[in-house]
Amino acid sequence: MKIAVHLHIFYLEMWDEIKEYLHNIGHYPYHLFVTLIQENDDLIHKIKEYHKDTSIYIVENRGYDVGAFVYFLHQIDLKQYDIIIKLHTKNKVGYDTLINHRYISRKNWVKLLYTGLLGSYALFIKNLYKFKVKQNLGMIGSQYLITSNAKNTKNVKSGVKDFMIKLGYIKPEKITFVAGTMFMIRSHLLQQIKDNFTINDFEISDPKIKDGTLAHILERVFGCLVVANGYTINGYDKNYYFECASILKTIRHFIYCRKITNHNYLLIKICKIPIYHRKQL
Fold first, then answer.
1. Order of strands, edge to edge, in the sheet holding 273-279?
2. d(Cα 111, Cα 106) in Å, to the nearest integer?
3. Which terminal residue of the chain has fewer beta carbons within 10 Å of its beta carbon, N or C?
């Protein structure tokens, strides 16, 4: 199977960590496409030294990693590849996020996204094998981050349904996607994204905005397109340590929860009862 890997690097310091995950692809041939929002000769040299078959582009800081991914789609012929692997850097600092009834720290969220795809050479090969033998498999992500929970979509639900109609589909009854937008996908399923969007459609990225942008809408649309075309989204990773730790974290969050809401309010709850709610500067 022919593979293209797209990596959007916003947090430059994460390259050394990401390189270790890419190492788990082993000697399997792939073309690496990297997008950066600014020139960095030292990093570019390190990337090309690590993987010779690499193309690097400087893009506008629009639409976070999704805008850069759409830019990448316009640089390739999707018919030349069977599988696209989408990766990006992600901020590890912040409050826990509730996904699939589990509280996940930002650090663990990043780790799960990467390990679900490239956690080991054996898992990477297993993921490819699943694509070969399961003809109805369209997308792979971490099993812990594939979600259909309405709470994870409520701020963009109407936008997702409007865009699915625009792309020629009926409104999805259920929105299933990989929270965090790192996945392996059959390349032909991205053709409609390429045909209907460019990086110029996206807003300038603002780290203060946590949800509700076109990028957040398309994060869900990727999954909806997979399902609407008759394919499934699956994950084949297993992390017993995370599963046990998440139980303890859920208990802790029941007793004391502190987070920043999507509307930039600091919210503190004790035993599920809100005791503090104030707008952050």
1. 256-260, 265-270, 273-279
2. 9
3. C
* Bridge partners (DSSP) listed for residue 104: 97
Closest CA to 221 of 194, 248, 260: 194
Q: Which two tokens stand for residue 49?
A: 């030294």
Q: Rounded to an integer, what distance in angstroms lies between the CA atom of residue 152 and that of residue 186?
A: 24
pLDDT value for 219: 97
Instruction: Return the structure tokens found at 166.
Output: 């625009």
DSSP string covering 122-186, please?
HHHHHHHHHHHH-TTEEEE--TTTEE--GGGTTTTHHHHHHHHHHTT-PPPSS--EETTS-EEEE
pLDDT attached to residue 7:
98
Burial category of 156 from C-beta neighbours within 10 Å (exposed 0-12, middle 13-18, buried 19 and up): buried
Distances (CA, A) of 10 to 67, 89, 94, 160, 222: 12, 6, 17, 25, 21
Rg of the chain over Cα atoms, rounded to whole angstroms, equals 19
* Partners of residue 273 on adjacent β-strands: 270
What the chain holds in terms of domains, given with CATH numbers, is 3-232 (3.90.550), 239-281 (no CATH)
pTM of the predicted model as reported, rounded to 2 decimal places: 0.88
Q: Is residue 125 a contact partner of residue 3, using CB atoms and an 8 Å limit?
A: no
Residues 6 or more apart whose CB falls under 8 angstroms from that of 41 comprise none
Name the token pair of 90: 């992600």
The reported pLDDT for the residue numbered 275 is 84
State which residues of the chain have pLDDT below 70: 245, 248, 281
